TrEMBL record:
Keyword Transferase on entry: yes
Coiled coil: none
Protein family: Belongs to the glycosyltransferase 2 family.
Protein name in the entry: Glycosyltransferase family 2 protein
Superkingdom classification of source: Bacteria
Gene3D superfamilies found in the cross-reference section: Spore Coat Polysaccharide Biosynthesis Protein SpsA, Chain A
GO molecular function list: glycosyltransferase activity
Entry keyword annotation includes Transferase: yes
Listed CDD domains: GT2_RfbF_like
Entry's transmembrane regions: none
Organism of derivation: Brucella tritici
Taxon lineage: Bacteria, Pseudomonadati, Pseudomonadota, Alphaproteobacteria, Hyphomicrobiales
Amino acid sequence: MIVTFNPDIKQLNKLIDTVTSQVQHLLIVDNDSHADIDIATTFTERAGIELISLSENFGIAKAQNIGIERAKTIGTDYVLLLDQDSLPAPNMVSELLKVAKTLEEKGVHVAGIGPSYTDVRQGEAAAFVYLDGCRLKRRENLSLDGFVEADFLIASGCLTPIESFDAIGLLNDDMFIDYVDIEWGLRARQQGYYCFGAFNAKMEHSLGDQWTEFHDRHIPVHSPLRHYYHFRNAVWLCRRPWLSFSWKVALFWRLVRQYLFFTFFVQEGKSHARMMSLGIWHGFINRMGRK
């Protein structure tokens, strides 16, 4: 399933060409893209593609939930979530399935299997992470099986057994965008379902509108509006009674670092600070949904 919102048609075509041969049924859920982006005419004539056009931009979480509910009616065993700016390797799905079936045969409750993804602007593959004490750490590829447990995964590229959604629940569409996959992954973990990263499954994925360098690190920079959702949803998540104290501490310090960085070390720092502050406030008062 691909969720779209004002996509680059050329890039979307490339994604569809790559993923069509890897899945049995391709579903596109469009979040009310601009009228000049005619997704219906472009893709509905292609065999094996189903388009659901939403009447407005409901956010990525609700669009994914609509797609998941549709997948249940089709009778599929697994759901693969994809963003419009991702590009899987030709064998990504088969590698994800291999790991999923290995774990299921061992009796593991699988929440999701995610690929090793790279933003070409950064160069190195993103890490699979876990919480150690109150700090997030990287999982190294030390397993002979080629996969590791992770506390959560990004949604794009994540392969989930359809039955897991019945046990864990759907994505939280009140969050609209940002932290949706983190909240779902941590909620799954609380219920005994686990996420895993597959090093042999590869994907290209774009993070952020632009990148900036800071102390030899490449850091993705989103718009001030995205930072509003980021901070609001993180604060809201920290207030969930089921979230462990260690996770709350880890997220708190992560937000402090991000607030200082995006206020003082990127362009339009005042705009970022204003929207981050508003997000913090709305997270405390439970003002969720689309801004």
